[in-house]
Amino acid sequence: MQTVKLNNGIEIPILGFGTYQITDPKEAEQAVIDAIKAGYRHIDTAQSYMNEEAVGRGLAASEVPREELFVTTKIWVENVSYEGVKESFQRSLQRLNLDYVDLLLLHQPYNDVYGAWRAMEELQEAGKIRAIGISNFAVDRAVDLAEFNKVIPQMNQIEINPFNQQTKNIEALKAEGIMPEAWAPFAEGKKDIFTNELLTNIGRKYQKSVAQVIVRWLIEQEIVVLAKSVKPERMAENLAVFDFSLTDEDKAAIATLNEGESQFFSHADPEMIKWMASRKMGI
């Protein structure tokens, strides 16, 4: 598996397995088992996914040594404070049945971000987290966090897909030494992306699926990407992207699909912030 290096020297597999919306415990556990068996070594979960325990069981069932796995979880909004991180992270470790995680992210750019970040810096210093980062932060918020704290975020996990390519934001994050990571690379199937004519035609040249073309497009930009499926055959398909390369012509064609806006919601929408603040999950 190809890896990329974060700004603190930690290497992360460039292609990870996402577990968002896999809420059934048995299905989530089996999905992690199948993903590792298929060849994934990077597993992504979050407090708000409500599947950390199941992911932990899947990790424990694997015969792959812990040090060969890269595990990410995220702090939900209600726990974004100094004490909230300290307390909820310990609960996450217990649910995952791990001594440490490889990457801990602040899931959303709300609540006491700066107090939470200080707690994460301390946990990283104590060896409980190998890398710390953020998710869904606009570039200015990411830079602000970097400039006024000891540790620059190692990662920013954001929505990146052919309809929302975020080219300038990706360049700006990389200029700050912050690795971009793509969630929803397939836009969760919106706008019939899997049958998109342009992407289908590119895939046909290489005997690859639309999903494989998208994953390859992201990897060639050195963007860490999360792919999700509960079907073992799809897991294997999403991994089979290291035997072809896109041409400049292919990339220029994909660039024409960019609509320059989220396929889901704006993180600057006051109503969305209020909704997240009200979503008390007790995690």
Automatic annotation (TrEMBL):
SUPFAM superfamilies: NAD(P)-linked oxidoreductase (SSF51430)
Catalytic residues in the record: Y49
Record has Protein biosynthesis as a keyword: no
Highest taxon, organism lineage: Bacteria
Coiled coil: none
A GO MF label: oxidoreductase activity, acting on the CH-OH group of donors, NAD or NADP as acceptor
Keyword NADP recorded: yes
PROSITE patterns: ALDOKETO_REDUCTASE_1 (PS00798), ALDOKETO_REDUCTASE_2 (PS00062), ALDOKETO_REDUCTASE_3 (PS00063)
Alphabetical list of Gene3D superfamilies matching this protein: NADP-dependent oxidoreductase domain (3.20.20.100)
Residues that hold substrate according to the record: H107
Pfam families hit by this protein: Aldo_ket_red
Protein keywords: NADP, Oxidoreductase
InterPro entries for this protein: AKR (IPR020471), Aldo/ket_reductase_CS (IPR018170), NAD(P)_OxRdtase_dom_sf (IPR036812), NADP_OxRdtase_dom (IPR023210)
Record-annotated NADP-dependent oxidoreductase domain positions: 15-258
Positions marked as site (Lowers pKa of active site Tyr): K74
Protein family per UniProt: Belongs to the aldo/keto reductase family.
Listed name of the protein: 2,5-diketo-D-gluconic acid reductase
Origin species: Enterococcus termitis
